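User: Here's a chain of 106 residues. Predict its fold as tokens.
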Amino acid sequence: MAKNFEPEAPSINLIGAGTIINGDIKSTGDIRIDGTLNGSVNAKGKIVIGNTGSVEGEIICQNADFSGIIKAQVTVTELLSLKATAKLTGDVTTNKLAIEPGALFS
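Assistant: Prediction complete.
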């Protein structure tokens, strides 16, 4: 009897504080960045950039939640949420945008 193939649940990836990545990341799951990324990140799920996270380059995803420092061209197909500690500089394309008081956006 053949075993039914069931696709795995999307993965959750973590880039920890103190980690520095120079290059591009592609993922079918969610990504949380608490370290530093110099390059682009493309995820079919949600991208979370924590308080200690920093991204310089390009971000493409379905949903995003930013708390850190972002210098990037950002494309979010659904909701982009900027928390109070977020500092975003760059071009943004999104369907919905939520900005908490205290967030810096230019």
